[in-house]
Amino acid sequence: PDFTLPEHKAVRQQLINNGLTNEQAAWSLAALWTLSNNADIECWNLRQHHLCETRLREEEEEEEWQQHHKEEEDAAWLEERKKNKNKYVPVMHRKVPSDPTILPAQYALRKLKHYFTNGGLEDAKISTLISDVYGPASGHGPGQAEPGQSHGLMTALAWPEILKSRSRQPEPQL
Question: pTM of the entire structure?
Answer without folding.
Answer: 0.38
